Amino acid sequence: MYGNGGGMGMWFIWPVMILVIVLVVVLLVRGSGGGANRGSGSAPPPGPGTGRTRAQEILDERYARGELTDEEYQDRLRQLRGDSDR
Questions:
Q1: Which among 19, 33, 50, 60 could bridge 46 via Cys, Cβ 3.0 to 4.6 Å?
Q2: Domain extents for the chain?
Q3: How far is 38 from 40, CA to CA, in rounded Å?
Q4: CB neighbours of residue 60 within 10 Å
Q5: How far apart are CA 26 and CA 36, in angstroms?
Q6: Where does the SHOCT domain start and stop, copy by copy (predicted)?
């Protein structure tokens, strides 16, 4: 049907070509910053240079919910920052 049997190797070439195309697309998407490990529109988590830690975020949330008084909040904030002016 294919003359000299040239079509016999096509069963191998097409899947390889498709795999290469998919790999190139995945690498392009990751390189452009569209990877799935990014937050859904949220800011990156605070790091060492941002001045805010997860502990401070929790403290802020508890204060906002009214679980802490002003004095408790300020005292715990000083403890987190390492201020020891007692």
A1: 50
A2: 51-86
A3: 6
A4: 14
A5: 11
A6: 57-80
Ranges of H-type helices in 1-86: 10-31, 54-64, 70-81
Helix orientation angle between 70-81 and 54-64, rounded to the nearest 10 degrees: 180
What type of residue is 11? W
**Alpha-carbon gap, residue 45 to 9, rounded angstroms:** 51
Over residues 43-86, the pLDDT tens digits come to: 555 555 455 788 999 999 999 999 999 999 999 999 988 876 55
Structure tokens at 11: 């069963």
The structure tokens listed for 48 are: 């060492």
Give residue 12's region: left, alpha or beta (phi > 0; psi -120 to 50). alpha
- pLDDT higher at 24 or 37: 24
